[in-house]
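Researcher: Let's try something more involved. This one mixes different molecule types, so please make sure each is placed in the same coordinate frame as the others.
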Amino acid sequence: MFAARRALTGVAQSRAFSASARDLSKVTVLGAAGGIGQPLSLLLKLNPRVTDLALYDIRLAPGVAADISHINTKSKVTGYDPTPSGLAAALKGAEIVLIPAGVPRKPGMTRDDLFNTNASIVRDLAKAAAESAPDANILVISNPVNSTVPIVAEIFKARGVYNPKRLFGVTTLDVVRASRFVSEIKNTDPKDENITVVGGHSGVTIVPLFSQSSHPDLVGNAELLNRVQFGGDEVVKAKDGAGSATLSMAMAGARFAESLLRAAQGEKGVVEPTFVDSPLYKDQGVEFFASKVELGPNGVEKIHEIGKVTGEEQKLLDAAIADLKKNIEKGVAFVAQNPGK
Ligand SMILES: NC(=O)C1=CN([C@@H]2O[C@H](COP(=O)(O)OP(=O)(O)OC[C@H]3O[C@@H](n4cnc5c(N)ncnc54)[C@H](O)[C@@H]3O)[C@@H](O)[C@H]2O)C=CC1
Ligand SMILES: O=C([O-])CC(=O)C(=O)O
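Model: All components are placed in one shared frame. Result:
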């Protein structure tokens, strides 16, 4: 009788837990006062799936939070002070942690030129996340993504809390751009253009697979390929020293967070492109790779195969793999040589 009651209580408790876990979604933004952080936080405040929005930055997060908190949606918004305890409190209980902290490019720079500054920023934030939110989905936006994602992985591994299903490099902007650029050429609605983009998030590591779209004739369109691979440069140039893409990136980051929340709340078949710990090219020494990933309550549910590609696309993939390997190794070596405090 006692055992039966205990068993029943157990069921009731786990139901209660999953019900409340469904209802409560804390999302934390690290770097929330920046060019991406502010509009991203705004979009998250407009998302009814987010119940608790935690904003952290080394400057201005309480101000941004005060501003956003006046928006008449239900979620609670809290801005945290730039202290270790502020950071820990921002992270505690988070289901999703988005990291757009770090410096952006100026004209003439590559994303890799940001490595020296951003690697240590991401490393230190990852340490705090491993400590205070080890089970959260970590979404890395800070560049160079091809290297900052391995940095987070190494930090989590060193602390024994690495879960490859919950670490994501955000490459959504590459598919957002690809669908928009194709729609401009084809005079279609970009929402109908599903362009698969695989690889990583810089230059030649960004590989659109037009042969798998409804416009296979676009394979070999050098101008379009260049625009997709170097779309970020277009914005850096136009902003003329004042930074890189922020608004389109905020939209892409908010879309990815929304997809994760939908999947966590039980929706099936939610697929997003993302840079994850992936088996696809491990035999070639590439530990992380962006491809279509089905999301689920545990994060990564299924990593899609690349599928059929043309000879031309295979050449692009080969070039991407060579660069990716170096970018990933650079992140891993950084943590080994600079473990920090
Ligand atoms: N994954 C992607 O597709 C994209 C990535 N990015 C990258 O996102 C990053 C941020 O770009 P923006 O928002 O334009 O830069 P930003 O300079 O406007 O904002 C960065 C924010 O990070 C904050 N920050 C710096 N160190 C921090 C720390 N230790 N803890 C918390 N916050 C910290 C700064 O105070 C600032 O508010 C850059 O590295 C950029 O290259 C940008 C566009 C697309
Ligand atoms: O180009 C940059 O430096 C920012 C970025 O990652 C993008 O816009 O795709």
